Amino acid sequence: MAKIVVAQEQKDSFESSLFADVFQLRYEAFVNRLNWEVVADNGRERDCFDDLQPYHIAIKDDEGRVQGCWRALPTLGSYMLKDVFPVMLQGESVPRHRQVWEISRLVVRKGAAKPTHGCIGDISVDLVLSFRDFALKHGIRSYVTVTTLAGERLLKMLGVRLRRLGAGKVIQVGIEKTVALWIDVNDIPEIKKN
Fold this sequence. Notes:
This protein has one domain (about 5-185): Aminopeptidase, CATH 3.40.630. The chain has 4 helices and 12 strands; from the N terminus they run E-H-E-E-E-E-H-E-E-E-H-E-H-E-E-E. It has helices at about 15-35, 80-85, 120-140, 150-155, and strands at about 5-10, 40, 45, 55-60, 65-75, 100-110, 115, 120, 140-150, 165, 170-175, 175-185. Strand 4 and strand 5 form a beta hairpin. The longest helix is centred in the N-terminal third of the chain and has 18 residues, at about 15-35. About 35% of the residues are buried. InterPro entries: Acyl_CoA_acyltransferase, Autoind_synth_CS, Autoind_synthase. It comes from Gynuella sunshinyii YC6258. Keywords: Autoinducer synthesis, Quorum sensing, S-adenosyl-L-methionine, Transferase.
């Protein structure tokens, strides 16, 4: 049975092993598997946005190992779309509101998921469900995110209504074709797992 854990690094020191697992999983996915050009050290991927006390939402298996995760940052300060990928806004104003947060660094451990919603794995479904739960607990109305076309397709397959920001064009970022998305929390369905 998967367990969802929500923690902030500075506040939840009791979860220090969680953060080590999250950064290691991100390294495995973004450096080893996807070959992205990201900051990595000692088998862990951690960037400057992790210094801003974001929330890390993780799914742990029965043995306590992180199988999937994502990071949440409010748009009132620095965040990836605004500070790293502003070109993705394509003319739209920079989102900045206490009820609008950014989803970033979403990852699922390769080979860990079991199909549950058509061809989509259970961990991906649980992560998307956690968007809604996290938002309701933190007064979040909408999310923004920069994601790959595959990430956008997964969200649509799960019934999440979303819109591309700005002109909505696909932009090549490194080796990935990417889009910036706006997701209203009310447009995240309560997904039924098979």
